[in-house]
Amino acid sequence: MKNIIIASTSTIHGTAYLEYLFDELKLFYNDIDDILFIPYARPNGISHDTYTEIATKGLSKIGRKVKGLHTFQNPETAIKEAKAIFVGGGNTFVLLNELYKKNLITSLKQTIKKGIPYLGTSAGSNICGLSIKTTNDMPIVFPKSLNALGVVPFNINPHYIDVDTTLKHMGESRETRINEFHKFNTQPVIGLREGSWLKVDDGSIKLKGTLNARIFEYNKEPYEIETETELNTLK
Amino acid sequence: MKNIIIASTSTIHGTAYLEYLFDELKLFYNDIDDILFIPYARPNGISHDTYTEIATKGLSKIGRKVKGLHTFQNPETAIKEAKAIFVGGGNTFVLLNELYKKNLITSLKQTIKKGIPYLGTSAGSNICGLSIKTTNDMPIVFPKSLNALGVVPFNINPHYIDVDTTLKHMGESRETRINEFHKFNTQPVIGLREGSWLKVDDGSIKLKGTLNARIFEYNKEPYEIETETELNTLK
């Protein structure tokens, strides 16, 4: 049993926080009112309280209540007893580091495998992959491992962005970076453009949203897939 | 004694490899013909041989010979006996990981502190800082530590790029990422734009090239410095 939304971003340009996902989230959270929010990724370094307020305001628009994991005495128990989980974006290293430090990786995995709805955006999506070695984030802290939840059998690259051939900046393109990843690692990587998400439903993993995604497999030319493509054989 | 060039990039748009640095490098390498090249950062995952050929071709234009560190039986001895060192760009994690695996951090530090000319570009510059926690690269491998050579008392952000307010992509700007760094770390960070370099000469650290650089200090508003600014008090 798995019930996961792995979203490239929380927000697409010109819309409110999570707004593009509201229709999907109404179905996803269905009759669940209370959502456990994990604010550890701290975008812009904001506090857990401030971040939880943002999530609370966002999900109140579809009538859901949110409680921050940081407000529980025992975060492990809170995860085990959660009816639904939302892990927001920010810095993936900061998020994973905190999960390791608080010893929450196993309980989070088990809770997801029980079928508890898990929504991840950006950093919260990155950690669904086998490792966070395809994050775009700056390594501002050093977690004890880059291995992640592995609830899908590949890596995620959120905020995927195409090569801009007009750029005069010499930094590497996203595609170059992911190709370099495959000199040292063999698992597939999904480049999820902003506005796309993966919906994991038991054995099915489908691309959702209006855009294509880009798939990078070891020793293969990268290729595009269309929305609604089934990805359950990708590993 | 220190004699270091810390360059944002090897190549600026529309010019040949290292070309914008040729005048500076003629003085820098002065009467030294043989340069030890460290190819470990492997841009695009290319081999050490291929990368060394690129450096050889580049530096041949100012009459210098290059030998790749990977061709020496004992890399530690090669570093200790080098007359000059050049560490090229690529992936900073890959570079640092290899230096740790081969146990070369101490000898590299000592050689630089003896005054042996060290040129770094991009990843090769990043490792001159206190840590590589302000790299832009993807963490495709996991070094045993992110602590770097620390031959300057701050961190480097090479390929620094300004906020583009026309972008509709929601990934974090470079400035946002460095501000997040300062929620967890206190050392200053120099955002070095492509075309800029730092010249370290004994106690002096000067910004070179035609551009400004952006300085990020803990708990301070970021600010611009002009070329030729002396940075030896920044720490």
TrEMBL record, chains A, B:
| CDD domains in alphabetical order | GAT1_Peptidase_E
Q: Does the keyword Zinc apply?
A: no
Any single GO molecular-function term of the entry would be: serine-type peptidase activity
Which keywords belong to this entry? Hydrolase, Protease, Serine protease
Cross-referenced Pfam families, in alphabetical order?
Answer: Peptidase_S51 (PF03575)
How far does the signal peptide extend, from start to end residue? Answer: none
GO biological-process terms attached to the record: proteolysis
User: What SUPFAM superfamilies does the record tag this protein with?
Assistant: Class I glutamine amidotransferase-like
Give the residue spans that cross the bilayer.
none
* NCBIfam families linked: PRK05282.1
* Similarity section: Belongs to the peptidase S51 family.
Q: What is this protein called?
A: (Alpha)-aspartyl dipeptidase
